[in-house]
């Protein structure tokens, strides 16, 4: 059964919808400039008493900063974007956190080497966008990541309407969705969350 993460949650109702819907993890964005950005205190509130794994999503933090944020929030894992992504992944694993390592997919394929991702970290393939680190709602050419040889998470423009096709085509370990589940930027539609999870789980 496909592992499912719902990212960019900003309210307790949205977190609860993901939990009740059967998601395996949620993502809480700490990146400045994102419409889904949370303060550390708000992220901690949403992470507390959540029955599934919580990941903080960071951009361009040093390993020390990312680990401090994860500890403050009480998160189970770190999804670090930006120039220090792989450094954060390695340090997160060493510190006992779960790790997701984003790999942007450009016009011709991955923009960084899969073998650079630590074995204990799950690669996350997402559409490359110069202005944003994830949450773009953009779908990339799935044929660019066929036959990876290791488990990975698929992201990038996934929603209830295409997640089954994506899973049937690529058979990823997991899927991750954010912006296509929103009624407006930063505001999740609860029905879309549940619908996405149900379709992913039965694919």
Strands, helices and their partners?
Blueprint: E1 3-7, H1 12-21, E2 25-29, H2 40-47, E3 53-59, H3 63-73, E4 77-81, H4 85-94, E5 98-106, E6 109-110, E7 122-127, E8 153-154, H5 163-170, E9 174-177, E10 182-184, E11 187-188, H6 190-202
Parallel strand pairs: 1-2, 1-9, 2-3, 3-4, 4-5, 5-7, 7-8, 8-9
Antiparallel strand pairs: 5-6, 10-11
Sum this structure up briefly.
By secondary structure, this protein is of the alpha/beta class. It has helices at 12-21, 40-47, 63-73, 85-94, 163-170, 190-202; strands spanning 3-7, 25-29, 53-59, 77-81, 98-106, 109-110, 122-127, 153-154, 174-177, 182-184, 187-188. The model has no long low-confidence stretch (mean pLDDT 93).
Structure description:
By secondary structure, this protein is α/β, with parallel strands linked by helices. It is 30% helix and 25% strand. Strands 1-2-3-4-5-7-8-9 form an eight-stranded parallel barrel, surrounded by six helices. The chain has a two-stranded antiparallel ribbon with strand order 10-11. Helix 1 runs parallel beside helix 6 and helix 3 crosses helix 4 (85-94). The protein starts with a strand and ends with a helix.
The tally of helices reads 6
Query: How many beta-strand elements?
Result: 11
Radius of gyration using CA atoms only: 15 Å
Q: Characterize the biggest β-sheet.
A: 8 strands, parallel, barrel
DSSP strand content = 15-25%
Q: Give the helix/strand class.
A: alpha/beta
Q: Unreliable segments (pLDDT under 50, ≥5 consecutive)? A: none
Average pLDDT over all residues: 93
- Report strand order across the widest sheet: 1-2-3-4-5-7-8-9
Question: What is the overall shape?
Answer: globular
Helical residue percent band: 25-40%
Helix-strand topology string: EHEHEHEHEEEEHEEEH
Rounded to the nearest angstrom, the distance between the terminal CA atoms is 8 Å
